[in-house]
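Usage

Read records sequentially. Each one opens with the input sequence:
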Amino acid sequence: MFKLSLLALTIGLSTAAIAAPQKNEPIQPIEPAVITQPAKVELGKQLFFDPRLSKSGFISCNSCHNLSMGGSDNLPSSIGHNWQEGPINSPTVLNSSLNLAQFWDGRAADLQEQAGGPIANPMEMGFTHDLAVGVLASIPQYVQSFKSIYKVEKITINEVTDAIAEFEKTLVTPNAPFDQWLKGDEKALSADALAGYKLFKEVGCVACHNGPAVGGNSFQKMGLIQAYETKNPAEGVAGLTGNDLDRFKFKVPTLRNVELTYPYFHDGAYWDLDDAVDVMARLQLGRQLEKEQISQITLFLKSLTGEQPSFAIPMLPPSTPQTPRPEPFAKVSQ
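and closes with the structure output:
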């Protein structure tokens, strides 16, 4: 009995050593996606990459949320239909399922509502929901996929956006060095990166950038201590509410994979992460950081880059003679 108890204790200690308890920190690890509806995810992946959901037949969801570029387009503002300049920086789609709402001003409650916005926006994909659905309905493979997955005879925009959202939920980036540190690997972070995290907490960055996504869970005014100067016309939440108190109030962006998602802020005005850290410390916290401190915080932020989504690029079903032809240079009717 004693030997059995000793063996059990030894096994228990070994298991505890392997699965070290998670650190009690204001940031939690990103967990891998759990896929329960693989067929729906695969359909959503096709739709995410399919440019035929735009009037030009050229712009897809991946155009502005490029999954080979951190889920963004690395431009100050996106390029839309007929080369129109978008009004605001394109947020990353990576880990977007962790946001409390979508878009900088939170006008979409969830990923499904967000997915329908760009399709019908004359400055983005320049189409309408009816026309986009008409394109899909002209392609037999899509018709069969929707029928098999959703049990519908007729495709609607509801199924289209639901499938895209289901795919986007899988676009999480677990196992960043910082996550490994959170889970007990003390060697996962360099001394400077760890010093940067301590500074990140001490100066107050963590008040807004917390949780698994290190942001995305609150709305805050840009320029609390000093006014933020920009030529970008975006008003933030005030554009929805009409309340001047909401002016320049934006959803706090996630800092996951932030080294990949330059340029920074809603206007994409800053390309260098060190500069973005300096600006935020001064304008939001009233702190003038030393160069070494900025460098350390930047190293911590780079430790938030996780494993990027990896999958085969989907093969899209071919158009048919019934499929409406793209109009890459057509003006969008208002």
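Summary fields computed downstream for this record:
- Residues 38-169 form a domain with the Cytochrome Bc1 Complex; Chain D, domain 2 fold (CATH 1.10.760.10).
- The radius of gyration is 23 Å.
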